[in-house]
Amino acid sequence: MPFIVYKKKGDKLKKEKKVSLAGYGAIYSLAKSKYSNVHINEEKGIGWEITEKEIIKELGFDPASYRLIIDLKPSVKGNISFYYLQRIFGYSYYGWTPIVLQLETIFVDEYPENPEKFKQEFQVPSEKGYVVHEFLYLQGGFKEGSWVWGRAGSINGCLLWPDALRFFMEKISPYIK
């Protein structure tokens, strides 16, 4: 699931650069800054939120001129499934962090004539997309871990304890219509 920075060019977006958000990258540094001065109950964990603009800025780009897009199905031949990354909600425990990616649909299972060319530059749809959420986890928390993506496999999900689930539901419920 590549994350790609696109430059705004009028009503088009042009591919700028693939970026890594996990590991000791943008998510780690922004999340740590959100709770670095807060007392953390080591048994409960702590919730945080970062926005697309904060991530773009952390990556060294101007948030007014760039967007962060996820290519959700990069290995499906000819498929374009692009989503804007709007924000990330996280709940960090001692050594792991369940997260929710808040996404806005741009293209869902589209098959353009020339997908590779399409991925380089495309016209932004005039209609606003749907807001959807993806639950994942990172192998790192407020005390230890590498902050890399959780193990991928035939089933990849994260267990949500009640405190984390309450936090996520509070955050995403305003976007559920």
Verbal overview:
With 177 residues, the protein is α+β, with helices and mostly antiparallel strands. The longest helix has 11 residues, at 162-172. Helices cover 19% and strands 41% of the residues. The mean pLDDT is 91. The chain has one domain (3-175). Strands 1, 2, 3, 4, 5, 6, 7, 8 and 9 form a nine-stranded antiparallel beta sheet that branches. The protein contains four helices and nine strands, in the order ββαβαβββαβββα.
**How confident overall, as mean pLDDT?**
91
The structural domain count equals 1
Kindly report how far apart the N and C termini lie.
27 Å
In percent terms, what proportion of residues is strand?
35-45%
Uncertain spans: none
Structural class: alpha+beta
